[in-house]
Amino acid sequence: MSNENNETEKQVLTTTELLKNYTNAIQTGLDNGSKYVDAFESLNTTKELNDLLAAAVQLTNYRLNTDFVEFPHQFSDEDVQLIFLERLLKLSDNANGFTISNAENVQKLLCTFGSLGDNTFTFTKSTKNESGFFFGPTAHNRPLFYLNLKNKELMFHGTSLIEYFVVDLEGLDVSAIKQALQVMIQAAQVLKETFGFKIDFNVLDGVNGEFYEFAAGEIPEPILDELFVKSADNQYILMSGQNGGAALTLDNDTKLTVYNAGDDDRPKWGATIHDNDQQESWLNLLLDYPFIKDWYLNNKKQLDILSNKIVFG
How, if at all, do strands 246-249 and 255-260 pair? Predict the structure, then answer.
């Protein structure tokens, strides 16, 4: 048999076929760009919350460039999350001073809360999940919350919230801090009520009876003794409770209870707050009562409020 019969004949494209493939590839790239434009237009202008979420999910991790068509100026995935958040707040009438502060820039958008002055915030993509993003201040490495639009989940990070709003912003008017916090809470509530998002409010949860679990598990007696002393110094009476716990009555019938929700073998110490309006979260408590803030910060290693370890590490 001849070598010609053993070899696979190579298909040779005609000039017409080659050019046809070329134009098809360009058209595919342009069509892909057109789909991106449609989604981005919806993200920017739609009045429907469902369309807003759908556009943001579609644009996240969208591959705009193709082999034959490249777009030099593109908004990042982080920018898409920020645009979504701003429009979500506006469409639900909860913007309250939350604005994108540098809209003239094409990449890496920043935002501000009106009550927090020039402090800027942005999103950063998670290294563990390409659909997940952390929101935090640009001047500090503080992931205030985690947002995953595809999986419909938002989780607040208690440690970072306290480090930023209680420690980093110390001296700023408490009402200004609470106003910014309320914007984030309102955004989470809209996501929960409109789309069924799973929300972990963590230290921002003001529902009576929410158990704020301490990281240490077991709390040494001297730490509670310190709270007794600080309470007395500020004209509040800390009463002994069951199993070594304690209860503190604060202003406006607000009651803080510290106790062991586990047992002697597997202690699970933490705290609950009860107030008539269900507005006093753990973070608000630290902002409203400096002596409790000092007690917490002095014993932060033991009293740190647990957050999702898989997401926040």
Answer: antiparallel
What pLDDT, in 10s, does the model give residues 149-197? 999 999 999 999 999 999 999 999 999 999 999 999 999 999 999 999 9
The CA distance from 141 to 132, in Å, is: 17
The one-character DSSP state at 72 is S
As a whole-number percent, the residues of the chain with pLDDT over 70 amount to 95
* 129 burial type by CB count under 10 A (0-12 exposed, 13-18 middle, 19+ buried): middle
When pLDDT is averaged across residues 10-39 and rounded to a whole number, the result is 91
Q: What is the pLDDT of residues 2-14, one digit of tens each?
A: 555 444 556 788 9
Cβ atoms of 143 and 135 within 8 Å: the answer is yes
Amino acid identity for residue 223 in this structure: I
Q: What domains can be seen in the chain, in order of their start residue?
A: 15-71 (no CATH), 79-204 (no CATH), 212-312 (3.30.310)
Helix orientation angle between 49-59 and 174-195, rounded to the nearest 10 degrees: 90
Dist CA 51 CA 53 (whole Å): 5
- Between CA 295 and CA 231 the distance in angstroms is 10
Q: Which helix (H) or strand (E) holds 304?
A: none
The residues that bridge with 274 in the sheet, in sequence order, are 255
Say how far apart CA 126 and CA 310 lie, in whole Å.
Answer: 12
Sheet holding 246-249, edge to edge: 212-213, 269-274, 255-260, 246-249, 238-240
The model's pTM: 0.92
Task: Report the mean per-residue pLDDT for the chain.
Answer: 93
- Provide the 10 A C-beta neighbour count for residue 294: 13
Q: Which helix (H) or strand (E) holds 87?
A: helix 77-91
Contact assessment for residue 19 and residue 27, using Cβ atoms and an 8 Å cutoff: no
